[in-house]
Amino acid sequence: MAPADPTEQGGGTSTLDRELEELLSREQVDDGDHDRFAHYVRKEKIVESAVTGKPVIALCGKVWVPGRDPSKFPVCPTCKEIYESLAD
Fold this sequence. Notes:
This protein has 88 residues and is mostly helical. The protein has helices spanning 14-25, 43-52, 77-86, and strands at 56-57, 63-64.
């Protein structure tokens, strides 16, 4: 089960989606500490990735193809901070 989807709270997401797509198109792939955390990603993107193998982009900017159980890792503090700021 993925962390909560921040877009389910309402509000416009088109700008966020556009920015995330721009990041993905640059194929930025992060390594290191990001791999130690579970990240916040839109649920439909996780499903799409499972079907197509297309990488996802977390709120913190991490780009990867999900393959591990996120419940076994602590939540990324950057993703959590961004998510909480969106709820305000």
